[in-house]
UniProtKB/TrEMBL annotation:
Residues 365-391 are annotated as: Disordered. This is Phage baseplate protein. InterPro entries: Barrel_Baseplate_J-like. Pfam families: Baseplate_J. Residues 98-178 form the Baseplate protein J-like barrel domain.
Length: 402
């Protein structure tokens, strides 16, 4: 049986359509009519069957568009809107605190285009006008195209819009990456995640509520959130007081821009009444009655990584190979995230494959200067103490070639 059934919508195939049309033709014109493909009746049967099959496929698409698990495109947007979910738009990457240097008093207008050294297609523009004072100024920049554009610190150095008096630019901070338009699959997963949890109380609900702030893609992403609870009447081994929760949050690039949002969400929307938030960061929150509360949370403990590489190289090794290696490892290491161990072989060493001319490598790595071994570095995910996160800087990486 085709159509709407107790098992859902059942599609009528083109073969079934042809069989029904042939039966109708024989009933109207006699059972002995010729309905083979070359005949007139056969040609009409195929034409009508194809058009009818297309209508059945349209009905199936319409039926599927009613349900979020099978809808796609704008139909999925409509389904998601019933539960107050909207597709996350594409967002621009941003770089804060770009340093402009040149002649004192030079005016750099908004929209001045800058690009990445070695990647001229990766362009950013200044978001506001800036005047050089004392030979420099800082300005925020936004990418000229949406999407997750990665720019490491110190890479934005080219001036594409010539301005008299502006001599150089650089970015002390890496880019906070934007995003592409949320896909159908991503929207389905996010909607299901939001609907399948309690909205306040349990630790998992608290974590989901804070991570849901990432729906605002114009700000730095919240890359990590851990929630710990102490439901006993004694301070626990982590130092969390009795009847308290401890939330550990990390924002992309180590920024603190979203502290107020995090505190508001934790204090006013997510945590249970009567439970005290514990942590090193203190933010005041004002409720709907005008009362002020102190919300606390923490950030991961940054573990500095010291790395020494002794490389054997040949003639293919580039002149700027040492700098390229440092850029690669700093970007890779700082993208590992909270609680992720540093695996030397093969993960770290595999990054060197992007640089030509390296024939051998000796690795020394540790959390103190002058490392001597090449063992993996353990980064605590909170199961044994504080939530940790490895911190990589160019100054803590030494590259020696021979």
């Amino acid at each position: 049986m085709s159509g709407l059934t107790a098992q859902g919508f059942v599609l009528k195939t083109i073969n079934e359509c042809e069989a029904e049309i042939e039966g109708a033709l024989r009933a109207a014109f006699g059972v002995h009519i010729n309905t083979t493909a070359p005949s007139v009746f056969g040609q009409l049967k195929s034409i009508f069957a194809e058009r009818e099959a297309l209508l059945w496929e349209a009905l199936q698409d319409l039926y599927n568009a009613l349900y979020p698990d099978s809808a796609d495109g704008i139909s999925l947007d409509h389904c998601a809107s019933i539960t107050a979910h909207t597709r996350l738009p594409a967002a621009y990457s941003r770089i804060s605190g770009v340093t402009l240097s040149g002649t004192d008093g030079t005016v750099v207008p908004a929209g001045t285009v800058l690009s990445v050294d070695g990647a001229p297609d990766v362009t950013f523009e200044t978001e506001e006008e800036a005047t050089l004072s004392g030979g420099s100024a800082t300005v925020d920049c936004i990418a000229t195209e949406t999407g997750p554009i990665s720019v490491s610190a110190g890479a934005l150095t080219n001036i594409d819009t010539p301005i008299s008096g502006l001599d150089s630019v650089t970015n002390p901070n890496a880019a906070v990456e934007g995003r592409d338009l949320e896909t159908d699959a991503e929207l389905r997963i996010r909607r299901n995640d939001n609907l399948q949890i309690s909205h306040a109380g349990p630790t998992e609900a608290i974590r989901k509520a804070i991570l849901a702030l990432n729906e605002d893609t114009t700000k730095a992403a919240i890359e990590h959130c851990s929630v710990f609870e102490n439901y006993t009447l004694e301070t626990d081994a982590r130092g969390i007081p009795a009847k308290s929760i401890a939330v550990v949050v990390y924002q992309a690039g180590g920024v603190t821009d979203r502290d107020q949002e995090i505190a508001d969400t934790l204090m006013l929307k997510a945590k249970p009444a009567g439970i005290r938030p514990h942590g090193d960061i203190s933010v005041d929150v004002v409720d709907s009655q005008g009362y002020t509360h102190t919300c606390r949370f923490s950030r991961p403990v940054l573990v500095p990584i010291y790395l020494e590489l002794d490389l054997t190289v040949d003639d293919d090794y580039p002149d700027n190979g040492d700098a390229v290696i440092k850029d690669l490892l700093v970007e890779w290491g700082n993208d590992l995230g909270a609680g992720v161990d540093i695996v030397v072989y093969p993960s770290l060493v595999a990054q060197l494959a992007q640089v030509a001319g390296i024939t051998d490598v000796t690795v020394r790595i540790g959390t103190d200067s002058g490392p001597t071994g090449d063992d993996n570095v353990d980064i605590d995910d909170g199961s044994g103490g504080d939530v940790e996160m490895s911190s990589w800087t160019h100054g803590n990486i030494t590259v020696t070639t021979s």
